[in-house]
Design goal:
mainly alpha; two-stranded antiparallel ribbon
Length: 303
């Protein structure tokens, strides 16, 4: 099979870009799961809300695009804290199935709220840009035309992940997060405000989802209330693939999933319409062969 080199490089970069965005959301999944053992299926919808906050921050409040991104990160972080306080905190000691059902309910609530409040129609995200031509400019490397926006997204994603690792492994709040993930009762006896740390975790993970949403909307500029549904599911698959509970695993899983999807399109273009289904096949295989994920650790469920 002969593969055009230009198409291969472009799809490889696209795979790294999409995989990096999956990784940002997957890290949100894995941070919350690592602390509470909760799969927060609302992260995809939080990602969509981040897009809306940035869009209206730029079009209604008239913020410049960088400030609209900051506005989106802050408001989405607050949304994450509210979701934890109103939906999950009352269920701290409830069976996990109750928290899981609640997470699905939160997801449906956010989607329905967005449809009613923002409308069901697609909106053009490029309206937030002062210079819309940046979405169409390209670098020329040899015979390869690569959109500049891909490098911008890759750079922002990499910077966000570096900052996250510094927070988790080089700060006191990060140390508290890791302590709570190991043993909540013992950590609380040591004087750490567990609810505050959990709130910070939800804020950081929600802000990452919002950043992923803004970057996603820059690359795929039309969005609507269900924009985050499929990326959210893909990010969950990425988290499981890498090892849910492991931040490094979430990053690895996201990048691998993005690259695998794009390489599938490169080598088997007739299977493009089955790209999403292939992701779920990966999920089934990893659960059968290595349920702890590539970097995850096998744990025993407490009853």
């Amino acid at each position: 099979m002969t593969i055009n080199f230009t198409i291969f490089i472009q799809n490889l970069l696209n795979g790294l870009m999409v995989g990096g965005l999956y990784a940002l959301i997957a890290v949100g999944y894995t941070m919350v799961y690592g602390i509470l053992g909760l799969i927060n299926f609302a992260f995809g919808d939080i990602m969509a809300m981040g897009i809306y906050f940035a869009y209206y921050g730029a079009t209604l409040i008239r913020l410049n695009f960088p400030f609209a991104i900051v506005f989106s990160l802050i408001t989405t972080a607050v949304l994450g804290i509210l979701i934890d306080r109103l939906a999950y905190k009352p269920l701290r000691n409830a069976p996990r199935i109750s928290a899981l059902i609640t997470a699905i309910g939160v997801s449906f609530f956010i989607e329905s709220f967005a449809v009613v409040f923002f409308g069901p129609n697609y909106k053009p995200f490029l309206d937030v840009l002062e210079d819309k031509t940046i979405a169409f400019q390209s670098f020329i490397i040899g015979n390869v035309y690569i959109p500049k926006i891909i490098f911008i997204i890759l750079g922002v994603t990499a910077a966000a992940l570096v900052v996250l690792f510094l927070i988790v492994y080089r700060t006191k709040i990060g140390m508290a997060m890791r302590a709570i993930s190991a043993d909540i009762p013992t950590t609380s006896l040591m004087g750490i405000n567990v609810d505050m740390v959990i709130g910070v975790t939800f804020a950081i993970s929600s802000a990452l989802a919002a950043l992923a949403g803004v970057m996603w909307a820059l690359r795929y500029p039309s969005f609507y209330p269900y924009t985050g549904f499929v990326p959210g599911l893909k990010a969950f698959i990425a988290a499981v693939l890498g090892g849910i509970g492991s931040i490094g695993g979430a990053v690895l899983g996201g990048i691998l999933l993005g690259v695998i999807e794009m390489m599938l399109i490169t080598f088997f273009p007739t299977l493009m319409q089955y790209k999403d289904a292939f992701s779920f096949i990966i999920l089934i295989i990893i659960l059968l062969v290595k349920p702890a994920g590539l970097l995850g650790k096998r744990t025993v469920e407490k009853v």
